[in-house]
């Protein structure tokens, strides 16, 4: 592969992961259409490359989110059990579920998630009273706090409805494996609405989780020969640098602006999925 092509692949990974890392989503939402539309790379190879990029993006941004106190590691480990099981299930049932039906279903889920996030326009200013000492979240030690640079203080938050969150994480992993996209686009609305987490905590925790979800299905793509090192290498390198840059930008962005940006992304992806379901595949 020529140096020019390698350079542009690196830039693709850099830009996609900077945007994805800032939003806590997998960069595959951007990398797959870019590789197929502008580089004319086979769809399966593009998805395999995006899987590698997701792992690199998660590794690159995780350290910054952890240092910033935005990642709830305990919660991520608990929720990842549901997401990983969903991803493995999706690998096994991918050949039996009509893709068009999944596209319509996914578009509907995104629209509902966008509406619920629009209704809840602001993050909670903190728990109004003492954090409950009973319940599953308290027993697992999931309640925590995060530093808000705008308010210059730590904001405590309560994790709610853990069983509902686990169910939604399973669905996110399932749909992610079936459609070949990152599960962060579903994880963040689930954590925002079901668990009632602040948007920055949802973003940091999602970034920590997406690499594990991608690793659960990466071996299948590798064994099928759909991960091309000449393509995945420069994209992964750019993804690490882009994820670090995106994480630093997130630290300085106000929560309501981040929520608006994520809402816009939800609507765009929902429109793309709907058009793909009726036979208009923009990725091709």
UniProtKB/TrEMBL annotation:
It holds the Pfam family TauE. The chain crosses the membrane at residues 6-32, 44-66, 86-112, 162-186, 206-223, 230-250, 262-283. Its main location: membrane. One of its GO terms (cellular component) is plasma membrane. It is found in: Cell membrane; Membrane. It comes from the Bacteria. Signal peptide: none annotated. The keyword Membrane applies. It is a multi-pass membrane protein. Keywords: Cell membrane, Membrane, Transmembrane, Transmembrane helix. Belongs to the 4-toluene sulfonate uptake permease (TSUP) (TC 2.A.102) family. This is Probable membrane transporter protein. It comes from Caballeronia zhejiangensis.
């Amino acid at each position: 592969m020529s140096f020019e092509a390698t350079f542009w692949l690196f830039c693709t990974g850099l830009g996609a992961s900077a945007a994805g890392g800032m939003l806590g989503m997998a960069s595959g939402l951007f990398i797959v259409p870019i590789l197929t539309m502008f580089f004319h790379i086979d769809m399966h190879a593009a998805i395999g490359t995006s899987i590698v990029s997701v792992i690199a993006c998660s590794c690159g941004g995780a350290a910054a989110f952890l240092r910033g106190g935005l990642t709830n590691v305990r919660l991520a480990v608990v929720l990842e059990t549901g997401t990983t099981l969903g991803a493995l299930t999706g690998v096994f049932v991918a050949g039996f579920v009509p893709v068009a039906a999944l596209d319509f279903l996914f578009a509907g889920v995104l629209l509902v998630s966008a509406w619920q996030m629009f209704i809840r326009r602001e993050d909670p200013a903190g728990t109004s009273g003492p954090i409950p000492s009973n319940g599953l979240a308290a027993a697992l030690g999931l309640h925590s706090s995060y530093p808000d640079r705008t308010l210059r203080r730590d904001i405590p938050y309560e994790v709610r409805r853990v069983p509902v969150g686990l169910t939604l994480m399973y669905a996110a992993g399932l749909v992610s494996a079936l459609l070949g996209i990152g599960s962060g686009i579903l994880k963040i609305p689930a954590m925002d609405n079901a668990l009632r987490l602040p948007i920055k905590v949802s973003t940091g925790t999602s970034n920590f989780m997406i690499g594990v979800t991608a690793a659960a299905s990466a071996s299948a793509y590798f064994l099928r020969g759909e991960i091309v090192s000449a393509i995945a290498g420069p994209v992964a390198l750019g993804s690490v640098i882009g994820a670090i840059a995106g994480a630093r930008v997130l630290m300085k962005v106000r929560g309501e602006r981040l929520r608006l940006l994520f809402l816009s992304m939800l609507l765009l992806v929902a429109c793309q999925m709907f058009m793909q379901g009726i036979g208009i595949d923009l990725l091709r």
